[in-house]
Design goal:
This protein is an alpha+beta fold. The protein has a domain of about 110 residues: Gnk2 domain, C-X8-C-X2-C motif (Killer Toxin P4, Chain A, 2-Layer Sandwich), CATH 3.30.430. It is about 25% helix and about 25% strand. The strands form two sheets. It has a five-stranded antiparallel beta sheet with strand order 4-7-8-6-5, with helices on one face. Strands 1-3-2-9 form a four-stranded antiparallel beta sheet, covered by helices on one side.
Amino acid sequence: MVNSAALCRGDIEPGLCMNCLNDSIVKLREVCPNQKEAIGTYDNCLLKYSTRSLLGNPKIMDYHYVLFNIYNSTDSVRFIGAVAALINDLKADAASGGLLLKFATGNTTGPDFKKIDGLVQCSPDLTEIQCRDCLEYANYLYVRDGHSESLGGTIILPTCRYSYGLDPFFNVNISESSVPSSSSSPSPSLRGTNVTCLDRNIFNRK
């Protein structure tokens, strides 16, 4: 049996969400036609499937995808501190969300009075602790990969993500309650597409 799960980014309109999901289904079939496990991340959604159970299991897939601004802050100490504080506050808000949505956006003032926007999201099947742990691990990977001084970036894991940047990138007009979320609809990504086949074993064909 194959299990699938997907998650719309919390600020995306339902129509864009469904378009993303439909495109991701096609792309996953093209890139990983016989694999037992795969994940696709896109600007507006994330889609994954596996022969293992996906819900409530944040460590089921060893995967992360990073996008980052190639330019670094000229005041890295204060910038890193401002981003860390913002993401930490948003992490708490998102983790305390309900069974339909664990999502938060906000902003803070960085060096030179520049506004820094932030977005965090967890798969709603995670517990509050699991959501926090996932986002903390995402931050660890992002820093480990050497992107903490970047003026903007996103990291996506199978069950959580966060983004930040100086330019507005989320839709403030979409209320959280209006965005549907379930274990088999679309999820978040960025300015690109990343599809990864996580298991090389192929399905048995009759």
